[in-house]
Design brief:
22% strand; six-stranded mixed beta sheet; alpha/beta; single chain; globular
Length: 385
């Protein structure tokens, strides 16, 4: 047990475990507090884009992840109403195509690696307040979907009809092409499908609270996940053909409300990484990659400053980290918000689908805007990690 760590990391998901690996590998005494126990399932699109794979190898887990991840995704698609479109996924010669992996596997691999590097990972332990943290450097990697008392956690939100609620389930025996990752549009929401580990297909989706209420009213007596599934099947030909003969593997997971935004990068002495710092709409499937990349940006600065950095140095790090984060991710967060607005509003959605039908190459361009072929730029402008 580390009595006085150099860094305390709150949350052991991809962002938190990445920070723990990088700091512990640099000789820091690191404690990680994680309220869950591993392995754990989690609402997530499961896709790890090509831009994140060099970082997984730098963390020492690339081969372990590759050994069980799903097939390479070479095509991006669109399933909307009765339309089925696809286009090549953008790729860069410097790294491979993206692949998908369930969070019960990815998170466990990263946590095990953090322990190998010397981090003291304590599962089933929550951090309730900044005052209970006994380290100079504290990193909030707790996500953004759950309210809490930490300065980097959001206040408990009041329910709104337009809130996005997240759902996920796995299916076996699906007929989705193994190299295709389609964006799924349906009334009131959007989602994505991808072939993940073990030959399973993951269906992750977001639906507004009001649209889910309508779906449950139409399918009385059904749980939320099942009512949502029937709503998607009834309105989307591509999902119906891919999953019509499939069997669900495990229970539906749900989370939310999901409110994508750029948040605070340091608050009350806590640095924020992953979704705690900012998240894009899940429709671009970049959540895992952005989480890992954000920790690389922050830890590059922390390691350079050293374990004994004073408060003025930490304040400077916060400013440099925010600038690097915005340079890498702000454009895709804004683009995702604009596209989400188009796809969740009926008149605009129809126009967008017609435009994509006439020019499917826009799908490739959209995937490029989301960062799927963009190497992480380090703290110095134009630097690549």
């Amino acid at each position: 047990m580390v009595e006085q760590p150099d860094a305390l990391v709150i949350g052991a998901g991809p962002a938190g475990s990445t920070a723990a690996i990088l700091l512990a590998s640099a000789g820091w005494r690191v404690v990680v507090l994680e309220k869950a126990t591993f392995p754990r399932r989690k609402v997530c699109d499961e896709y790890v884009s090509g831009a994140a794979w060099p970082l997984l190898h730098a963390l020492g887990v690339g081969d372990r992840v590759a050994a069980i991840a799903g097939p390479e995704v070479r095509r991006v698609g669109l399933f909307a109403d009765d339309r089925l479109l696809d286009a090549p996924m953008p790729s860069a010669a410097a790294f491979r195509n993206g692949r998908a992996l369930g969070r019960e596997h990815l998170d466990t691999i990263l946590v095990e690696r953090a322990r190998e590097c010397g981090a003291d990972v304590r599962e089933g332990v929550a951090c309730e307040s900044r005052e209970s943290a006994s380290a100079r450097v504290v990193i909030g990697a707790h996500g953004a979907w759950e309210a809490g008392a930490l300065p980097t956690q959001p206040p408990r939100p009041s329910a709104r009809p337009g809130d996005l609620l997240g759902f996920k389930a796995h299916f076996r025996g699906a007929r989705l092409p193994r190299d295709l990752m389609p964006l799924v549009l349906f009334p009131g929401g959007y989602g994505g499908m991808v072939t993940t580990d073990g030959g399973r297909v993951s269906l992750s989706c977001c639906i507004t609270r009001r649209a889910l209420a309508r779906a449950r009213a139409q399918h009385r007596g059904m749980r939320a996940g099942e009512a949502l599934y029937l709503h998607i099947i009834e309105t989307n030909r591509g999902v119906r053909e891919a999953l019509g003969a499939a069997t669900r593997d495990g229970a539906w997971l749900s989370a939310g409300p999901i409110r994508p935004a750029i948040r605070r990068f340091r608050a009350g002495g806590l640095f924020a990484v992953g979704n705690a710092a900012g998240e894009a709409h899940p429709l671009i499937a970049e959540g895992i990659s952005m989480a890992i990349q954000s920790s690389f940006l922050l830890c590059e600065l922390l390691v350079a400053a050293g374990r004994d950095a004073d408060e003025s140095a930490l304040a400077l790090i916060a400013r440099e980290y925010e600038a690097a984060w915005r340079r890498n991710f702000a454009p895709r967060v804004r683009a995702a918000a604009a596209f989400a607005a188009l796809t969740t509003r009926a008149p605009a959605r129809s126009i967008a689908v017609q435009a994509l039908s006439m020019l499917p190459s826009i799908l490739t361009l959209g995937a490029r805007w989301s960062g799927k072929d963009q190497r992480l730029r380090g703290v110095a402008a134009g630097e690549s990690d």
